Amino acid sequence: MPHAVIGLGANLGDPVAQLRAAIAAIGALPQTRVLAVSSFYRTAPVGFLDQPDFVNAAVAVDTALAPRALLEGLAAVERAAGRERAFKDAPRLIDLDVLLYDERVVDEPGLAIPHPRLHERAFALAPLVEVAPDAVVPGHGRAADLLARCAGQKVARI
């Protein structure tokens, strides 16, 4: 069964509760089993800066869902949680992204794996490395090495 890592983030409402609910919903997706859940991390916003800090995490899963079907399942979880997409990098109740899917590279409309800019974002790399210490970001190298290059970014385990 393919192995995937999903990134989670939230900064509105009760982010910790929303991440916990999303993790449960991910585990309830068809043909999907949660293998590991990272710690939660408090992180500074990227892009649009006039918003609260985020809480981020990662979940490693085994899934028989194809990458597009997994993304659609995650989008359904977001919608059920009240996710609205006001503008790029807007504050959000929940954000779920497929960070990695085995070591595959997917570049389709609306779906890019590995997640774009994953290799330069500590808020995604720190929890990823926790649940998949040997992960490789295709085209960029070992996730742990990439995280070390992001040392100046504010990421604090909570």
Task: Name the descriptors.
Alpha-Beta Plaits; 158 residues; six-stranded antiparallel sheet
The CATH class name reads Alpha Beta
Q: Please compute the radius of gyration using only Cα atoms.
A: 14 Å
Poorly predicted regions are none
CATH domain topology:
Alpha-Beta Plaits
Q: How does the major sheet shape up?
A: 6 strands, antiparallel
- Series of secondary-structure elements, N-terminal to C-terminal: EHEEEHEEEHEEHE
CATH architecture: 2-Layer Sandwich
Helix count equals: 4
- The average pLDDT is 93
CATH evolutionary superfamily: 7,8-Dihydro-6-hydroxymethylpterin-pyrophosphokinase HPPK
In words, what does this structure look like?
With 158 residues, the chain is an alpha+beta fold. The chain has a single domain (3-157), classed as 7,8-Dihydro-6-hydroxymethylpterin-pyrophosphokinase HPPK (Alpha-Beta Plaits), CATH 3.30.70. Helices cover 27% and strands 30% of the residues.
Can you lay out the helices and strands and say which pair or pack?
Blueprint: E1 3-10, H1 15-27, E2 32-37, E3 41-43, E4 54-63, H2 67-80, E5 95-101, E6 106-108, E7 111-113, H3 122-131, E8 136-137, E9 141-142, H4 143-148, E10 155-157
Antiparallel strand pairs: 1-4, 1-5, 2-4, 3-4, 3-10, 6-7, 8-9
